[in-house]
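Bump. Still looking for Pentatricopeptide repeat-containing protein structure tokens.
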Amino acid sequence: MYSLFGEVDFAQKVFDETPQRDIVMWNSVLAVYAQHNLAYQALVYARAMVNAGLRLNGVSVVSVLSACSSLKALREGKIFRVMSIKNVVSWTSMINAYSYSNLFNEALTLFQEMEGENVTPDEITMLSIVSICSKLGSSELGDWIDNYIKKNRFKKFQSTTMLNALMDMYAKCGNIKKACEVFDWMIKRTLVSWTTIIHGLAMHGYAIPALLRFSHMQREGFKPDGVVFLSILSACSHAGLADEGRKCFNSMIQEYHMKPGREHYGCMIDLLCRGGLVNEAFELVCSMPEKPDMIMWRMLIGACRNQGDISLVDEISSHLNGNGMGPKCSEDYGLLSNVYAEAGQWVRVKEIRKEMKIKGLMKLDPGFSSVEAY
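Sorry for the wait, here they are.
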């Protein structure tokens, strides 16, 4: 509270006079110094926090980094050098600091230095490294982690949380087969486990296996959330499984009483358009509780163009103009113009181009090219 009024000294006094200090209190005093750009004091308290045997968490790291005027201090390892006790806690804290700052290569280099100092990583360290590999999405790094775990026989790290992280890493690094193997090994599975494997399968285009896992998940008594439904709808869309996608979407609303988000509607519209069910897609867009964005309307118009359904394009245009959602940019006008041009409706093309000129969305003196004949 004192920090809100600029009373840094009083905040420090309260901290110093408190005998029992938990992570919340340490983070509070770090935040005070960070908010007042007192970088040196923030680093001193970060060191003291580690020396007291506490691990810097995400809140701690954000405070320390925001206190620094730039990431130069972090890159040079100054934060780490002020920590007198370099144990697994301090090493992991520094690795997390690099990770939070998207300095992934530096984090991996530090992990290798940690190995060189014969400091054995704990599960939190490995979770950080696995998370970094997931973000980078490198198959080589995925193989490296796999071999590292096997080489060091980290059986004590086979918790559900760790296995979920490994599954996610393997999937994002392109090894969906290995992700499935990890899932099959798991004795205890959580909703995160099911969500991770279904998303991984969907991401790699394995719609049928994703649907099978989805059914299995429900038989096991797990209630799917919006993330799972989004993965399933996306998989069905790219695989052209309109019926299955429609069933999942209806199940989301009717069976699980969930309110679909804009992303769910977007997947369904894409699915129906890909399946040639443009009229159904149009009805779905019109029934949305939220105002559809122009991306959805472009998907519809593009699908009409592919199927040569000019009458529906007219209906969509009338609907948009009637609701004040007509074309706003040159891309929208260009799409409509191309649709009508391909259908040979040059009167409509002329009307659209005239409207573009009036709104200043089209050059009055377009460029030209010439060819000289000899």
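The chain has 22 helices and no strands.

Edit: fixed formatting.
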